[in-house]
Amino acid sequence: MRQLFSLFLALLSAASLSSAASDYHEQLVLRPLPLSTLLASFNFRSNITLSSFEAHNFDLFPRSLAQILQHAGTRELHLRFSLGRWDAQSWGARPWDGAREGGTGVELWAWLEAETDEEADQKWRTLTNALSGLFCASLNFIDGTRTTRPVMSFQPEGDHPNATMENMHLLYGVLPHEVVCTENLTPFLKLLPCKGKAGVASLLDGHKLFDASWQSMAIDIRPVCPSGGECVLEIEQTIDMVLDIERSKRPRDNPIPRPVPDHELKCDSSKPYHSHGTCFPTDYSAGQDWSLSQIFGKSIKETCPLTDPSIPPVCLQVPESRSVYASQGSTEKKNPDRMSRCFEIEPETGFEMILPRIETEDPAKSAAVELVKPETPLLYAERSFTGHGQERGGVQTILRNPSLDTEVEFIYMESLPWFMRIYLHTIEARIEGHFGEQEPLIKEVYYRPAVDRARGTQLEVRMRVPPASTVFLTYDFEKSILRYTEYPPDANRGFDVAAAVITILNPEKNGTRFAVYNMRTTSLLCSLPTPDFSMPYNVIIFTSTAIALAFGGMFNILVRRFVAADEGPEMGSTIKEKLGRRIKKLIEKLVKGKTAEKTAAVETKG
Amino acid sequence: MPSISFGALLGNNSNLRARSYVNRLPLFTRAVLVAIVVFWMVGVQSVWDLRAWGALVPDLVGISSLYRLNTYPFIHLNFFHAVMNILALVPLLERFESEHGTLTSLALFFGPFVTIPSFMYLFVEKVILRANTAVMGASIWVFLLLGIEAIRTYKLNPYLVVGTHNIPTWTSPLAILLCVAALVPSSSFLGHLCGLAVGYFCGLGYLKYLAPPEKILRWIEGKLNLLGRLPHYVSVDQKTYGRFGVLPSSGTGALRLRRDPRMLKVPPYLSLLCILVGVVWLFLLPLNEYSRRTYISENALLPGQVHTYFSGSDQNVFRAYKHEVNGLADKSNIEVNDKLESIVKGLGLKTARQNFTYQSAGRVYSGENLYAILQAPRGDATEAIVLVGAWKNVKGELNRNGIPLILTLARYFKRWSLWSKDIIFLVTPDSIAGPQAWVDAYHDAHDSSRVNSLPLKSGLLQGAIAIDYSQETRFESVHIVYDGINGQLPNLDLINSVVSIAGGQMGIGVAIQEMWHHNDQYPDRLRTMLRGMLKQGLGRASGPHSAFIPYHVDAVTLQPFGDGWQDEMAMGRVVEGTFRSLNNLLEHLHQSFFFYLLMQRERFVSIGTYLPSAMLVAANFTIMAIALWVKSGHAEGEGDSKPNTPAAERDLFLPLGVITFVQSIAVIPLHLFNHAPSSALTPTFLLFAALNTALPHLISHYLATYHSPSTQQYHLIKAFSLLLLGMFLSSLATLNFSLALLIGLLASPLTFMRAWPGSPVLRYACTILLNAISPTAVIAAGAVYWGLDLGTVLEEAAFGWDVCGMYTPVVVWCVWWPAWVAGSVVVLGRPKAKESSSQGKGKKAEGKKDL
Questions:
Q1: How far apart are CA A139 and CA B767, in angstroms?
Q2: Keywords assigned by UniProt (chain A) (predicted)?
Q3: Which end of chain B is more exposed for a tag (fewer CB within 10 A), N or C?
Q4: What is the DSSP code string of B438-450?
């Protein structure tokens, strides 16, 4: 999978090299995954020479975005909108090696050109506010507490001249609570030259996209300087989604999964009790049939006229043996690896594609025909909370290296909200079932502690996982108590904690790419101690406060009386007098006691 | 008169004080007071409209009606207005007059203090606002005087520090002004403000020249001999020390009452009253007036608002799964899990297993949990809900329909794309240990030597439903089991949702607390409530859901019962509806009650209503303990009838030693019953019961032989023991109400136990009574009453302690048992009556000498 995608990348970049500036192309890659799911990767790319960019001649580059970039001094920008989770166990490695995805919610990181940190912060604020308006997302909520400056995890993807590199500031912000939905898709499509009206973008429909099991929208803007050519500013828009084929095939006007009629139920007739009213189901083993219009609700009506015709707009990654019917006006081109094929579409024609059901008896065989076996990812990561109660807790990340011979080295980055105060001394990495001395797993830790209400915790750990082993990375934290007004309206839901970013480093240190694989864990929900916000509670505290303040003062004035010391009545209250009186009393007591004793003694004598 | 209401409210002593206060009021204040009252009385008749005559109406003020400027403070709208103003005015005016003298007050309050504010008011109201609002009442003076006082306070004490803010004290009347304007209807903000402004001016000293010169006042006073002629007259010269006069002598009133020996006789009756009221309170709860109908608090739940589609061909699938489960009926745990895992995996869910081994009372409880996670489509593993099915239910029956139902539901839920939370399907080999191991491991609170960690996890658990469906035939109603460990309960909203979905939407009856037929009358309600309380009090796990509740995961078990026409699909639809409701939750269940007693499926009492019952029972011990402490401070014998009995020194060492000893040996039974092997439990218990009967005699004998304690020391032993018991039980009542009440009632005779030095018959009667309510006797009697084997009861208690973290044994052995032993020792005590008292006196004298 990785090779395939890099192949496409190479193809694309080669194409972008050959054709001059201000060109545009788009591509849809479809790839069936196990458990009757389908990965659809949309990629749109256009570029513009830096000189015309400076001259405000934007051509196909979206003008609204370009102006924001210029205004905020942004040299490189990455924006992610994601929803759901990638099921690495069944779906394998991530598309684009994870380079085009973010954690749940919205993620933004950018390199800004600024002289000082303050200027960078100022520009960052400008950028987030402008993007917030452009994408209808709450990006303006990326404030100081949600912004970090990663040290190890990110490297610029573009080619920057060394002069500007020195003044570039990387800022990273994440909004895990942001729910990505259609209002974010519409502005995304508007940035495209064909606005989602023609070409593969016409397949993008909010209903289908947000019904996907996993989806990620990405915008990457970076300067690219081909050797010998003029530097260009490249914008790449990517949408990846994993669709459940069965769910997508449901008609839109009747989406309720009612039980199928008895006769349509697929049964395992080999069971001894199999009869008319008893059926052991065998749903998920059979190969699925699907077509483009069934999955996306419509087919491609027309290609985008602005696109570069040399890049095939639709590619399908299925074994060569799988039969595929494509509509007229398209030509099928099989790749030499026998695992994928692309379709070239003639201008101004539509495109439809049908994959018929595989009629085989053996389910294992049908899977081999149906789909390319997913590639194993370099690392599996799973993060969860440990502990219970509202005082403290822990975070545990399970990192598994499936490879039998290669070690994985990566950077694990957490940007935590300030109200999770981590205990750095508790950070520990241990290999499961492995005790005793070993080379330390954690190689380097970069930690920037949180400041209450001002900035969050930033933790970057460079570590390794030996081959075929599972590493538990754990640390403990304390939950702080928020102020009354700092709770959101749904305080009892808990607080979202952003996904951890895992960047697997390139083992060849001098390689062209900094990271070979990126991934995000799932986000977490942290429940903090929450006061009872119910109405009776509020009434009680407010009325008590009012009474204490208003009537306390009044009562005080009515009752208390201040008299200067010399005005007051003579009480004989000097210390001397008091002491004298005490002593007198004591002496009296003693004398009395003695006489009493004496009398007692006399009595006994008598 | 205010004094009357004060007196009635505050009792005898305050009455005295109030009367003396009223008696000492200076002349002018009295005159104003009388004037206000007289004007109010005049205003009561309806012939002549006093208010129209005397109020300050801006439009009506002319040369001929200038009297209004002076009359309006005396005239009030109604009785309430007059009373409130009198209450506020009298202390302020009294202070003013006693500082400045009657004549000055007269001159000021009939001159500038009434006219200046009214002119200000007229100016603002008529000229600026062009309105015509009539004002009346003495409150203008109240604010004027408050202004003066505020300025004076400000000079002495400029700031009131609230947090980090310094609030100037002179603003306090402004705050009061705002409060009055906001809270009191038809109060004149402007009028009050004018009064306040004049008050501020006066306080700052700008109005000093308006006061009549002292020389003249002195002359008038001297000429007319006012001081001699008028009672309560405050002279110009008179200083104002001791404004409040001398307090009423301390020998009267409450202090005298405190010394009254009869007071010491009250506490036992008060204790008895507390117990009786506590019990009666409990029996009142099922009445309509004291209990409430349940309601859904959390709007997001929307129970019963969705169509359920679990039916049709899914029943064919259910039948197939049931065949599979039946085929596994007598297979081992591992074989069962292998088969179930293959089925669940075939549905496309992620599965994992977990081993656990618990040891309790010499027995090993081990098994393997199987669970599967249905990942929410589009979800992010932040939240999860759990569907639990134990292979065997609490009674040990095979969950014959429950497990196939869970499998079918898993397949059905997989088809839906609307889940916002992950759904975890958990199949445990038994009903208590398996879920406990799983939940502990899910929250990483497990002992990893006994319980394996979970290989697969999801997000925060938001709720759990357990299905216990072993019945073969069609059912009639659903039984909701909701008791958690240690009497913790799930959020009432969860139960209400199930009731509303099953009862309201599906038309399936719902029962609680094994009340299969409930007619919603008093006896049935009471029975339901008492059953619930007993279960809560015992604190044991009552089903697979119980383990979830201590982790703040709301959970219930649903058990179909009865002979009706509802089939498994109906049960499935109930679960589907409940899951759809839980799926709607935006926040953790928090809206409704966590502390409640249910007396019918739709009727409950909340903690505020029922808690006083247990608190009263617990308070009876504390009251008696305090009374005994006070009593032990008096020398006994001769002084009972005299008001001033001599004080006695308390000899604390022996009582504290006895209590410490008894409390510390409580660890022995706790350890013994939680660690003995099951075969030895019954013999151990019998032996312990025998020893337990003898123990108070031994301690008592030892004390009598070596220490010969006095009556006072016995009092103190009892006081400390009861104090501890009261303290423990009142705190326990907030955690587990039923247990606190149960123990409180069983221990209530201890309040009334005392040494009977002169009467062996009574002593033995008391001893027998105490032995009848000893912890051991109660446990044995309970086992016999419910037809249980004593060994089983003890084994269960040990299991609860070892596996579930149930704290009932701690309460029984470390709270109740020591109190019982101490009480028995007191009953058996033979204090040295007369001799000991004289001895005590001798000791006391010695002690004094040492001093």
A1: 77
A2: Membrane, Signal, Transmembrane, Transmembrane helix
A3: C
A4: HHHHHTT-S-TTT
What does the pLDDT look like over A66-112, one tens digit per residue?
999 999 989 999 999 998 889 888 888 899 888 888 889 999 999 99
CB contact under 8 A, A557 and B150: yes
Contacts of A491 in chain B (CB under 8 A): 587
Active-site residue numbers of B? 139, 192
User: With contacts defined as CB-CB under 8 Å, which chain B residues touch A534?
Assistant: 591
Q: What is the pTM of this model?
A: 0.77
List, by residue range, all CATH 2.60.40.740 domains of chain A.
380-526
ipTM tops the 0.90 cut: no
379-408 in chain B: CB under 8 A from chain A: 379-383
* Residue contacts between A and B (CB atoms, under 8 Å): 171
Among chain B residues, CA nearest to A565 = B241
CB < 8 Å to B160, chain A: 553
**Position A202, amino acid:** S
C-alpha span between A372 and A317 (Å, rounded): 7
Strand-pair category, A330-334 with A341-345: antiparallel
CA neighbor of B192 nearest in space, from B98, B111, B88, B107: B88
Contact criterion met (CB below 8 Å) for A220 and A235: yes
CATH 3.30.1490.100 applies to domain B299-601 = no
Chain B residue with minimal CA distance to A494?
B587
Q: How far does the CA of residue A54 sit from the closest CA of chain B (Å)? A: 41
Residues 6+ apart with CB under 8 A from A458: A148, A149, A150, A413, A414, A415, A446, A447, A448
Per-residue pLDDT tens over the stretch B793-832: 999 999 999 999 999 999 999 999 999 999 999 998 887 7
Query: How far apart are the CA of B316 and the nearest CA of chain A, in angstroms?
Result: 4
B443/A257 Cβ within 8 A: no
Asked if pLDDT for residue B639 goes beyond 50, the answer is: no
d(CA A162, CA B271): 88
| A593 close to B (CB below 8 A) | yes
Residue in B closest to A537 by C-alpha: B591
Is B613 strand, coil or helix?
Answer: helix
Of A472, A475, A455, A476, nearest to A391 by C-alpha is A476
Q: Which pairs from A348-352 meet CB under 8 Å and 24+ separation?
A: A348/A302, A348/A303, A348/A305, A349/A302, A349/A303, A350/A299, A350/A300, A350/A301, A350/A302, A351/A292, A351/A299, A351/A300, A351/A303, A351/A313, A351/A314, A351/A326, A351/A327, A352/A291, A352/A292, A352/A293, A352/A299, A352/A300, A352/A326, A352/A327
Judge whether A547 is closer than 8 Å to chain B, CB to CB. Answer: no
State which residue of chain B sits closest to A398, comparing Cα positions.
Answer: B455
Contacts of B378 in chain A (CB under 8 A): 83-84, 210-214
Architecture of domain B2-138+212-229: Up-down Bundle (1.20)
Residues 367-386 of A with CB under 8 A from B: 382, 384-386
Q: Lay out the sheet containing B475-481: strands in order across.
A: B350-360, B363-374, B422-428, B383-390, B460-467, B555-566, B475-481, B509-512
Phi, psi at B210, each rounded to 5°: -75, -25
Question: In a 3-state reduction of DSSP, which class is residue B534?
Answer: helix
B87–chain A Cβ distance below 8 A for any pair: no
Q: CB of B606 within 8 Å of any CB in chain A?
A: no
Fold of A380-526: Immunoglobulin-like (2.60.40)
Question: What are the extents of the domains in chain B?
Answer: 2-138+212-229, 299-601, 621-850
B317 part of contact set with chain A, CB < 8 Å: yes
Residues of B with Cβ-Cβ distance to A255 under 8 angstroms: 417
pLDDT per residue as tens digits for the range A287-343 = 678 888 888 888 888 888 888 888 888 898 888 888 888 888 888 888 888 788 888
